Amino acid sequence: MTRLPNGKTAYSVHLNKDRQEKPKAQNLPPTGFDEKTRIWFNGKMVRWHDATIHVMSHVIHYGSSVFEGFRCYETLHGPAIFRLKDHVDRLFDSAKIYRIDMPFTKAEIIQACIDVVRLNKLKACYLRPVAFRGYHSLGVDPRLCPTQVAVAALMWGKYLGPDALKNGVAVRVASWNRMRPNTFPSMAKAASNYMPSQLVKLEAKMDNYVEGIMLDANGYVSEGSGENIFLVYRGKIYTPPFSASILPGITRDCVIEMAKDFGYEIVEAQVPREMLYVADEVFFTGSAAEITPIRSIDRITIGNGKCGAITERLQGKFFAIIEGREKDGYGWLTPVQ
Length: 337
Ligand code: PMP
Known about the structure:
The protein has 337 residues and is an alpha+beta fold. 25% of the residues lie in helices and 26% in strands. The strands form three sheets. Strands 10, 11, 12, 13, 14, 15, 16, 17 and 18 form a nine-stranded mixed β-sheet that branches. Strands 3, 4, 5, 6, 7, 8, 9 and 19 form an eight-stranded antiparallel β-sheet that branches. The chain has a two-stranded antiparallel sheet with strand order 1-2.
């Protein structure tokens, strides 16, 4: 433990030989980290405090990592991982975009995710696979830095607050735009994309909003700092297209599939900012946020300020499937025996 000049404390738990020292609670909210769990790290299951890297690793200096985040749900039939293959596919797509050679196959990463849940005897959790450029040299050229891969699990509650799914969240339009298409590749889920997302989140929180909505470089609606966005307007469902610099969300894809099956018309088109204010319903989607209604934007009430009927219908089906109450007709769940 080191006292920093600003009065804060830096914890170097991994350097502690007897592994007894833990960050003290200090009245901070729970993190969801369970330090008793094992982490899959470069092909082996290691103790939480042994899953460490060197400060001179490439990723620390240049943000050179790609990652995933998804939930394992406690269904009526045991734990099941949500859209596991699709998330691992996206991890490999992100690595491909950034020319990061993956030292493991997709099948090995899929197995690692299952093993992390099984070995740690978890019922429900959030899984975080991450692939990053490791330790070799400090130049920007990353080619000699070996790729390292980890899969960890944590306990994550409702991402946007305990009553967000029911009552909706109050959000703002961010003053920071989503990156231009030819600056960062938004289809890659890369750590570097989350620097602007942090600005958006911080700005929102400091102003007592739950989240921020970014516009794209052309001023059209893009997405939240960690969520895709949908609007219901005059009976149709709108969502920004990939060309609005969004991450191709997997929950977004679920909503599109379910909405089509319900018979709604889905329009993937540029969404002007003011359409947010006059929409009947607006909601976020994401592995962490699931399907979260938005009750106000920039303090303008959306619809009647409650979870709208179409949002509720989509939520209802989504939760029925992931809780195992309804047949998983889409094949979204991978059971962990
Ligand atoms: N956009 C961003 C920027 C995100 O971080 C996320 C969360 N991964 C999403 C959208 C939603 O994607 P998914 O539904 O795959 O979690």
